[in-house]
Amino acid sequence: MERKEFLRTLGAGAAFAVAFPCVQGCTKGPGLETEPVPTGVDFTIDLSGPDGDALSGNGDFIIRNYVVIARNLAGDFVAASQVCSHQQTPEVRFVESQGGIFQCATHGSQFAQDGTPLNSVTSNPLKIFQTALNGDQLRVFE
Ligand code: FES
């Protein structure tokens, strides 16, 4: 079923809610899991093992210590908070759309690889971490 067809089956109100999830202001509903944005991040990923396999293709990502570590579409490593800057749910992932961005599944916020918000869900930048590759060791740090 095409997206447009799916939205039509939901009716106008539901389609509006899907397309514009935060027009009335997002609220933290009951059961919305939140986490603190990670601080003091400094750890190393061994790319000679399973983590290396999981990050072998452009667009791949893994999550460690509430940090999303991705190989972007150019093949470079980038890292961002798994915890969204909007309402702190740990739902940020790397997605391949728009040349590779970070996106939160909770309300649909999108962020450039430098953390800049890309839509109107939030104006708060996503926390970005540095990466440094030394052989098979990928350091992720602030
Ligand atoms: S918590 Fe709202 S978009 Fe991420």
Report the biggest beta sheet as strand number plus sense, adding barrel if it closes: 6 strands, antiparallel
Under CATH, the topology of the largest domain can be stated as Rieske Iron-sulfur Protein
Assign an overall shape: globular
Q: How many separate domains?
A: 2
Alpha-carbon Rg, integer = 17 Å
Q: Structural class, from helix and strand content?
A: alpha+beta
Topology order in helix (H) and strand (E) letters: HHEHEEEEEEEE
What is the strand arrangement across the widest sheet? Answer: 1-9-8-4-3-2
InterPro entries: Rieske_2Fe-2S (IPR017941), Rieske_2Fe-2S_sf (IPR036922)
Pfam families: Rieske (PF00355)
Keywords: 2Fe-2S, Iron, Iron-sulfur, Metal-binding
Organism: Robiginitalea biformata (strain ATCC BAA-864 / DSM 15991 / KCTC 12146 / HTCC2501)
Secondary structure layout:
Layout: H1 3-10, H2 12-19, E1 42-46, H3 50-54, E2 61-64, E3 67-71, E4 77-81, E5 92-95, E6 101-104, E7 110-111, E8 128-134, E9 137-141
Antiparallel strand pairs: 1-9, 2-3, 3-4, 4-8, 5-6, 6-7, 8-9
The protein binds FE2/S2 (inorganic) cluster.
Main attributes?
single chain, 142 residues, alpha+beta, Rieske Iron-sulfur Protein, 2 domains, 3-stranded antiparallel sheet, 15% helix, globular, disordered N terminus, binds FE2/S2 (inorganic) cluster, 2Fe-2S, Rieske_2Fe-2S_sf, metal ion binding, Rieske domain-containing protein
